[in-house]
Amino acid sequence: MEIYGKFAPMRFFPIMAWCVAFCVAAHGAELKVVSLHPLIGDLLKQVGGDKIEVVDLIGAKGDPHSFEPRTEDIAAVSGAKVYFVSGMGLEGYLPKLRSILAADVRIVEVGATLPALHGACEHEEHANEHQHELDPHWWHSVDLFRRATSLIAVELSKEFPTEHEVFEKNATAYRKQLDELEKWLKREIVKIPKDHRKLATTHSAFQYFCKAYGFESFAVQGVNREQMPGAKELAELMKTLKDEKVAAIFPERESNPKILTSLTQDTGIKLGGELIADGRGVTSYEEMIRSNVTIIVSALSAE
Questions:
Q1: Is there a contact between 85 and 37 (Cβ–Cβ < 8 Å)?
Q2: Where are the domains of the chain?
Q3: How many CB atoms lie within 10 A of CB 104?
Q4: C-alpha angle 255/279/195, rounded to 5°?
Q5: H-type helices in 190-222, by residue range?
Q6: Whether the model pTM is above 0.70
Q7: For a 10 Å CB count at each end of the chain, is N or C smaller?
Q8: What's the distance, CA 163 to chain centroid?
Q9: pLDDT, position 129
Q10: HSE-up of 134 (CA within 13 Å, CB side)?
Q11: In what order do the strands lie in the sheet with 106-109?
Q12: What pLDDT digit, counting tens, does each position of 190-234 carry?
């Protein structure tokens, strides 16, 4: 029985077109990638757009320094061919991660080719394994994050070459957004007198920020977030902070502020707002930068 008669091709075509559109929409992103750092995850979304699916293995409350890769986690992201990590030695678990990934899966260390600052990093969870020879907190320089944007576009294009132009276009747009962010940052910093640009923080996570924007860095607990300074070290630190006329000490959202509270009571230096060191608890890189800069300017410009 002929249902559509001579108009069958015309009626059948819209149905097929709808089916194709539905199937493509249902399939969604064609490339699945894994992020092991919240800020890298944001960067991947900015550059990849709707062409990729970003799977965050760390989670909103996880610590990118101390992720423990498990076989069940890897099974949950089956099909992902590339993992993006921060690099510069931040992830001490990479050898274990490589051992449980398939041979054709790549790990991209985003910070590996960026100019690095030296400074051993002795995270407690890395004890007896290694020490970072480099400071791995490169993302606190907007310029380095901008450079990382280009690297992400290149790496995504390797996996999905047919979308190279899309990735490049997205990267260009995001670099312009970062340009505007850095212009805003510099306008805000001008509000701080040059002799007040001394950033005292819980641990040494802001050296890249300080180098890029003209601050002197002081770390109360050095590079290890968990290690507490001894009585002698604390006394020397208090003297240094007083001699340098440091106006404020800034805790980090991820750290215990008790030692800083004690320091501020003993020195008369005020306690600043909480800074975000690793990107946890924010929805984007820009949110972290704007939050940190606003807190720093608020505490140091009024002195």
A1: yes
A2: 26-185, 192-300
A3: 6
A4: 70
A5: 207-213
A6: yes
A7: N
A8: 24
A9: 42
A10: 18
A11: 52-56, 31-35, 82-85, 106-109
A12: 999 999 999 999 888 999 999 999 999 988 765 445 556 666 777
